[in-house]
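Everyone, describe these structure tokens:
***
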Amino acid sequence: MRFEPAPFFEDMAGGSPGGGAVWAETSDGVRIRLGHWCPKGARGTVLLFPGRTEYIEKYSDTATTLSDLGFATLAVDWRGQGLADRPLEDRRVGHVDVFQDYQNDVAAVLEVARHLDLPRPWHLLAHSMGGAIGLRAVMDGLPVQSCAFTGPMWGIYMSPVMKPLGWAISQTAEALGLGQKMPPGSNVDGYVLVQPFEGNLLTTDPDMYKMMQDQLVAHPELSLGGPSLIWLRESLLECRELSQRPSPDLPCLTFLGDQEKIVDSDRIRERMAIWPRGELVMVPGAEHEVLMETPAIRADAFDRLVTHFTASWDGNNT
């Protein structure tokens, strides 16, 4: 596998110097982008799996904090978002043909981590959609010493009235030639560009929300709108399949905001209640993106993450 330098936007709001990016091609021929930060003397590496619509620069602040705490970071633009290849003619629609295709991206992440000789032990930190991708990866033996999740998409929140409708529409859309269309009420523009801070479902911190907005204004090519109906179908099926599999015997720390309205909180509580060596941290006052929350919430989350990553180190660096 060849790894060519890729664009990395240090000029973006919230961006930080010291990072870089590379292109990688997956086993099924999709070009994805990976961002890396590696401070001198790092005592391990965090494999950062972002959520749907996200891109590596959004996590520059997170990577900087992890660097200050002694960890390297490797983040990924999943297929269909960021600067990775996007499969549809309308680049603004989030799409994947089969949800498990994301595991090809995970394999490429590992190849890049080895190519860059990122320090071990490796740990997983996954958010939202990345939490579903990461859960399957650790179930299948991802070579990490611990895992952590924020607002993981182990189920998609839908009201009792909308849930059967969402299943029905997503399951029949492709047969009707509508699979690449978005669900009713979705928008082709990025969420933070159309949703004012007031009433948003991501964060209670106005500065972090403005950072997200400023980033997409500076580089609109990173923006992504709503998902396709095929993406919705594949995500619902993946969440259902994952719910039927046991959690791995791997140290796990999961954060869930008590104001969560995007993913299914009940699915998270159910899994963490029976996860061996697992801990669920409920975050009072937080929305979906705990790592993009108020300074106090972020500081507590990073303290817990470092304790978690450090406690799992057993000295074998495998």
About this structure: The mean pLDDT is 95. Residues 295-311 form the longest helix (17 residues).
